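Human: For the file, kindly provide a plain-text protein record giving the amino acid sequence and the backbone structure tokens, at your earliest convenience.
Assistant:
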Amino acid sequence: AAAQEPESGAEARFSAGVVSQRGVFGDDNPKAASKLGVSLSAQVRRRTTGRTGFSFEAVWQPVGLPNPHFDETLNTMYFLIGPEIGRRTYVRPVVGVALQAWSGSQTESGLNFALAAGVAVGRRVPVRGAWLNPELVVRCSASPGAASTMLGLQMAVGARK
């Protein structure tokens, strides 16, 4: 059983997922929008021989959320860091920034940064020289006039020594 546990060192994982996105737009008259989307991410995890590692992830949401006030769409890219706690079953609370990319005919600012946070709960499953990591994820970002949340399932794949 010990041979099945993740070893110490660095691990790269790539994931794709299906997410439910929700955004609230506007300060004076907030309106919400929801959309089913996808997430694509790259993760780097510094594994240790103990139960806690350190992770960095970059997550892109290519399906944008429409702003119900104006003809513009919000796409978000997250840059998150935090501990990954656990060996086979784990939780990964993360914080960082989100790059909010706005597009559409009424867009005033193309890019801006927002505060971001999230959590993932997953399980490592060894399969033929790789780790499959099904995860339940929640990510949020907020800036003046726009807040977004995503909840979904993703599958991360990483190499196994």
